[in-house]
Amino acid sequence: MLFWVIAAILTLGASLAVLIPLASGSKGGTASSDHDLEVYRDQLSELDLDVARGLIQPAEAEEARAEIARRILRLDNAADKSAARQPSMATRLVATAAVLAVPLVSWGLYSQLGSPDLPSQPLSERLAKNPADSSVEELVARAEAHLAANPSDGRGWGVLAPVYLRTQRFSDAVTAYRNAIRLDGDSAARQAGLGEAIASAAGGIVSADAQAAFEAALKLDPANPKASFYLAMGMAQEGRTEQATAVWQKMLAALPQDSAWRGAVEQALAESAKQNVASGVPAKGPDAANVDAASSMSPQDREAMINTMVAGLDERLRQNPRDAEGWMQLIRSYVVLGKADQARDALNRGIAVFGSDSEEAKKFTAFAISLGLTATE
Asked: pTM for this one?
């Protein structure tokens, strides 16, 4: 109903804007002509007074009267032409009917073809449209405006979170996913999205927070491919290449042929194989399985075994320093052994190899921070 009231007011205003000038004709023009005629008459009277006072010669007065008379004649001719151009009563009636017919016809057509009672589309449905149908900037601006007014809309946060992730606003994505989980409940998709946002914000490093989110996603959906993929990536970053490879191979066997994750898994397996070939042998730092296996040894033997592994990894990195995964494994190994100074030294050496402004250095730093370690100057 509100729509029709607004439409009626707008239509009335547009019609009056056309009808009022049409009905009034050229009254303004007639009034202007009458005013000019009065001025010329006053000029003639002033001219007679000037002659009587001797202020102007009779010959000059005659010339002036003749000029004023010519102006009066031109004014009369213009008035006649203006009157001739005035539309007749029949013409005005036809024009008025045409103007009034436009809104009547348009309203009739809209009532049959339009949809004035179509309900508004919910925010979640509007934002869930394919980005090709509307710009990402429009979606984000609309969602942010809505959430600014309705911060407790968990569904709105859930819809905005993946948009932030696609546009690489990772910190905002983390906040949005956490709000969605807090307000609208837990789900495997939201936990996996949260883990991806945390890892992306850390430069691709699967930190403890990201790992916890992925593990929560797998508890809700053991077949969630995103959570499985990133957990395997975290294993590879810790030096557990064989375990990561086993997870990716299992995923590849179970994924449908049209799955979007097949390409990512195949690429991860290829990179893992390439690193093994380049290093000649698999990395053998002391991971969690090594430590568990050494628990049955005497303290002296256990410490000797682990130190030998760490020393071997350290020596391999001195010979092949361009191994980014190896440096992260070495850093973690020293942290696990409680040797913070050696871990910090390994971190600084790794950063020096690739340069402090390199992507690898950023990953090293983020990884070390996730372990509670910082570099020294």
From this structure: 0.44
Residues contacting 33, CB < 8 A, separation 6+: 75, 78, 79, 82
DSSP string, 17-46: HHHHHHHHTTHHHHHHHHHHHHHHHHHHHH
CATH topology of domain 288-371: 1.25.40
**Alpha-carbon gap, residue 132 to 113, rounded angstroms:** 27
pLDDT one-digit tens code per residue, 164-203: 888 888 999 999 999 999 999 999 999 999 999 999 888 8
Domain coordinates in residue numbering, the chain: 131-279, 288-371
Q: How many CA atoms lie within 13 A of 282 on its CB side?
A: 14
CATH 1.25.40.10 fits 131-279, yes or no: yes
Separation of alpha carbons 169 and 150, rounded Å: 21
Radius of gyration of the chain (CA): 43
| Non-local CB neighbours of 190 within 8 Å, separated by 6+ positions | 158, 161, 177, 180, 181
Q: Which of 210, 182, 209 is nearest to 195 (CA)?
A: 210
